[in-house]
Amino acid sequence: MHETAVSLIELGAVFFGLGVLGRLAWRIGISPIPLYLLGGLAFGQGGLIPLHGIEPFTHLAAEIGVVLLLLLLGLEYSAGELVTGLKRSWVAGLVDIVLNAAPGAIVAWLLGWGPIGALTMAGVTYISSSGIVAKVLGDLGRLGNRETPVVLSILVFEDLAMAVYLPILTALLAGVSFLGGLTAVGVSLVVITLVLLVALRFGKYVSALIDSTDPEVFLLRLLGSALLVAGLASELQVSAAVGSFLLGIAISGSTAENATRMLEPLRDLFAAIFFVVFGLNTDPSAIPPVLGFAVLLALVTAATKIATGWFAAARHGVRKLGRARAGAALVARGEFSIVIAGLAVASGGVDSQLAALATAYVLLMAILGPVAARIVEPVAKQVVRRVPSLS
Amino acid sequence: MDVTVTPLPGLGTQQDFSTRSGHRVGVISYRDGRFELIVSDHDDPDKIAASVALTTHETSALANLLGAPHLVAQLTEQQSEVTGVTTWQLPVGTGSPFDGLPLSATEMRTRTSTSIVAVVRSATVHPSPRPDFLFAGGDLVIVVGTPEGLKAASEILERGTD
After folding, report:
1. Any A CB within 8 A of B150 CB
2. Which has the closest alpha carbon to B40: A317, A143, A145?
3. Predicted structure pTM score
4. To the nearest whole angstrom, how far is the Cα of B1 from the nearest Cα of chain A?
5. A206-252: per-residue pLDDT in tens?
């Protein structure tokens, strides 16, 4: 068979398979991310059926997937919302960082992966999946609940923390000196502040630059500017992901709404490829040795996220059942944990087992998260019934 | 009334207030223009017991339904300085003697010295209805007058002018 023909057939089979898996996942009430990862694991190196000839495409597509993931995340927030979210939730946000980054860092340290490995795993266990959390809250009809704004503002805080964290990680992974790392931090902080200021004051000009009534022109400008900004940012070692996140924040109003509508299907497509590629690059035989740690991390960080949500909701006067719901809603980890692990693995600056641990961990957490959010109420009610002193 | 406005980052805005009955009632306005009516659980006021997605048409219909008591409250407030005058809302039930008859058939002003100032029908307020306004079952009639006059008006709307 012709080489292109083989590649097309392979790609077609992969996409179609992902479509089936995605439908199946939401049917049984979990996120499709773990199934995409499993799909990648099955086909990659050491997997059941190795795929050849589609790497150049999938490699670039996975990169675009990350850019789109972060761009749409940025589009969801206006600069004003970020600022108020930050004001509302900074105490809970700090508790969130301490409680949830520590387990990942400690495990990486125990496994002897060095400071950079620890920083990477800290990010992997810290960040909740805003995609899964938002979807689950919507599905369960909890958007009007009193604890939901608390949950959302923690997500906003985490997303902003990512904008600071990713450039630092990228710089350190690139092996720059301590001074270089400090410079990267300084540069990224200045850039983020500038973008927030520009977005607050001149967001409409950025939007006008991209906006067009013609869908084709609009899509080309939007995607073009996102890739341009991402590329330039990555050249400046601020990380492509952060570049597109900041562009998303700067785009506001109706332009942002149209952009979200237009890019959502594209993001879903490219992000799915991103997860598959991550799975492809992970050797399934590397998972069993780290599985114990993954399970341990899953249990510990599920508990620490519940504690975070409980604490944050309590600060806003939410009662105990609501606090439990807030905690359980935050448990899911997903896309951003894989983005972080992906950055680290691609740089080659971390232990090769890190990808395996991150994959196994996200596999567990992307399933556990939606399930925890669903069962928290009956469980909490049972606990209250058994231990009446808690109510 | 204390209406709490809460931003829902990435989604929209939630506006709600607590009722005396212990419920939280409010509206979520999504950024893309959708509306959702929310009512909290009684035992767990942090939790939403019912959320209903509403189109723009449906929200204005609901607003009008709730507008009738609002109208009554407003009129009552306006007349609060006039002693002895008050506002009631009276139903024209299906099967009422005036179902299908014009307003003039009630001879309300002559018999009771009260005034019909508005009629609310299927979520629309018809202000200052003319004598030829035709009643239909389910109408709400907003009447202004003295308490005795209003009592008489209510009896007339229920039993007819015999």
Report:
1. no
2. A145
3. 0.81
4. 19
5. 888 888 889 899 999 999 999 999 998 888 777 788 889 888 988 88
